[in-house]
Predict the structure.
Amino acid sequence: MKYRKLGKFGLRISEIALGGWLTYGGSVEETKAIPIVRTAVDKGINFIDIADIYSKGRAEEIIGRAIKDIPRSSLVISSKLFWPMSKDVNDRGLSRKHIFESVEKTLKRVGTDYLDIYYCHRFDPETELEETIRAMDDLVHQGKVLYWGTSVWSGTQIEYAVEISDYYKAYKPAVEQPRYNMLDRHIEKDVIPTCARYGIGLTVWSPLAQGLLTGKYNDSPPPGSRGTETQWLKDDMTDDNLEKCRKLQKIADDMGVKLSQLALAWILKHEEISCVITGATNVEQLNENVIASDLELSDDIMKAIDKII
């Protein structure tokens, strides 16, 4: 496993991270999740990404039980807040009240004294950004959070957060977590340049386009797969995207690797990226993903990929 700095900051995270969205506490039960987490750590993955909204706290609880015997200092644990966790009018958003109450609940569920990274899981148009930044700054001063970041924010919103942090001499956002893969490159226009300008790390999710870049949908969605049940994936499953996947599959076959490994290695070829956050429903998937950290793509391969995508 290789490791990269989180932007300009001193924290080093594994190029392949393990995420808990749609899996732990959801499609993957605890008895299967814990061996996956333990194997990930054995393979050198030190970054585990979760959020309070993932299975309404269950993912945090399962990860907490999975890491309880692992030295805390060897792990980088992140979580997020924003989405409603109950019908309570204040149990949502990025207000000071919700931030302070949410972090305590997350720490209890995970069973830790601090989070390495705490993300604002979307931009909150109903809360003044100054209020959010001051709350995050206080959490850092209290030692409950080491770095704070954003997730799915625009380049303009990130820049505004940096400016406000500078004005109040508060801790700045250290990382952004956007969606990014071969088929969805929207962040290249403004998010990547903005983060590069301020030394903000990028921990990207959906690197395999919800499974589209594994090749299993190249012909038709397998019965019972997410391709038949998830609207988000259905929207991505256009004829154009499927044709790109088939062409990319040929490149992967010629290299003797899986399409998923090619897709992860392509992202990691971009030096602005700190890591790719992968999901795994079994140990075999995890072992396949980890290989991408050591997969080198030549300039010719990158050019061939670029012609397709």
Remarks:
- The chain has a mean pLDDT of 94.
